[in-house]
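Run log, item B.
One chain of 246 residues. Sequence copied directly from the ordering sheet:
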Amino acid sequence: MENLDLNRLPKHIAIIMDGNGRWAQEKGQDRLYGHYHGVISVRKVVEAATEIGIEYLTLYAFSTENWDRPEAEVTGLMVLFVDTIAKEVPDLHKNNIKLRFIGDLDMLPPAAKKALADATEQTANNTGLTLIIALSYSSRWEIVQATQKLALAVQNGALQPDQITEAVFAAALTTSDFPDPALMIRTSGEHRISNFLLYQMAYAELYFTDTRWPDFRKEHLVNALLDYQSRERRFGKTSAQVQTND
């Protein structure tokens, strides 16, 4: 922590929480055992992000592709989501954390949709860390949805095609209320983005670690931040231009 420059923190961190199932299988347990322990990592990382001063944290909890997993695992995950939200929301609210959910939430079972709606409402006025859970989420789905929304606006005469700028397109995405992630972390040794925030991560720094998600803790987050701060973010400019602007 003492090596972190608190003036150069990413405003928004996105995390692909990978490796729960493999972590469990390595211990001779079923995959749900790993998901339950992954919840502990979520709690620890949210606490660490709040302590460090991160403003936005997006966690990739469940992709649209995950619906194709074995039925028992999907059912168990839905139960886990509902139980976890019920248990964690009071503490999140007490710590001034705002909860938001993105994704094709209509695909969720009724109990999960209600839990999400209640959690969003309860924490809506909080002003601390914004914790965004990507649930039943697919970036391609999101981009198609935004395109359909803008096409309908053009069809209705509310928008002209030449008025569709990057800002207008970004405003049609589910993440329109949040800044783009500056840092993306993926655990468990995979080096893919996996249909996660494809439009939003155009200029994100990517950090990959072999650590399985159930083992991910504050020190791992700090290591990712230190790596982020060691990089030069040029956004298409030269090093000399960046240094002059600094």
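Observations after the first pass:
- Helices lie at 20-26, 31-52, 71-94, 110-122, 139-155, 166-171, 218-229, 239-245.
- The mean pLDDT is 94.
Flagged for discussion on Thursday.
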